[in-house]
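Anyone up for a design puzzle?
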């Protein structure tokens, strides 16, 4: 069994895998890390490996305290990945984006793949059908857009994600919801259209915390899986073991 852990900018997600099967998913706050991992290992004592991808500010020692119980592996740029990294600044490419690219490469061979991760930030990562990682884009996620409108204006309220009643906002609150949500959807569809116009044999993978909210609003056909990063972690770790 493998315990995969994704340390994001806001929360931690984890999953226990036996082979390619997911036994259980978990979501918790960063200050709960050690206590929650202890409980997971109590429930799944046959876990042999703890595999971590981190872009958040959690100390490695929090994970290393479990080294006596199981093998702990932190993915880094030095690991083996199933794609050719053509990024102009490869060492600055986030490990989370590399894991997503690896999962897309392994799960959808010989296709052009666009991975869209809708979380704190929204990231776009493109891997061509020859397994070349070419890059993508980064922009603010839904929550950041709401917070930015509030933090950088004098009077706009801080709202939380809600379905806009119409694209024509008939109040300040509805205007904000329309601008944030519809603008976000138009952005994603615009990127997808641009990629589609340049590449055939194409698949779009939508993941991240806001994936389910967005999936039914996009005009383009996509493969939506909010836990794609955790699954990709497990697959990339197995790829590493097989190719070391």
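Challenge accepted. My sequence:
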């Amino acid at each position: 069994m493998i315990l995969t852990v994704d340390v994001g900018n806001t929360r931690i997600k984890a999953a226990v895998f036996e082979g390619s099967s997911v036994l259980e998913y978990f979501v918790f706050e960063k200050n709960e890390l050690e206590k929650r991992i202890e409980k997971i290992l109590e429930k799944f004592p046959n876990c042999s490996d703890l595999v971590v991808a981190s872009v958040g500010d959690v100390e490695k020692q929090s994970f290393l305290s479990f080294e006596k119980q199981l093998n702990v592996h932190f993915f880094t740029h030095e690991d083996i990945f199933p794609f050719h990294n053509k990024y102009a600044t490869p060492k600055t490419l986030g490990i989370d984006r590399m894991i997503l690219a690896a999962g897309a490469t392994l799960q959808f061979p010989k296709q052009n793949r666009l991975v869209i991760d809708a979380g704190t930030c929204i990231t776009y990562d493109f891997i061509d059908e020859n397994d070349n990682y070419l890059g993508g884009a980064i922009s603010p996620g839904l929550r950041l857009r709401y917070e930015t409108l509030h933090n950088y204006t004098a009077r706009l309220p801080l709202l939380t994600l809600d379905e806009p009643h119409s694209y024509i906002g008939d109040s300040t609150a509805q205007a904000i919801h329309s601008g944030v949500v519809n603008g976000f959807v138009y952005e994603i569809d615009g990127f997808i259209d641009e990629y589609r116009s340049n590449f055939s044999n194409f698949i779009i993978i939508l993941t991240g915390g806001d994936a389910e909210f967005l999936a039914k609003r996009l005009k383009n056909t996509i493969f939506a899986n909010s836990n794609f990063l955790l699954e990709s972690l497990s697959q990339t770790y197995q790829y590493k073991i097989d190719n070391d």
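A detail worth pointing out: The chain has two domains: 2-74, 84-233.
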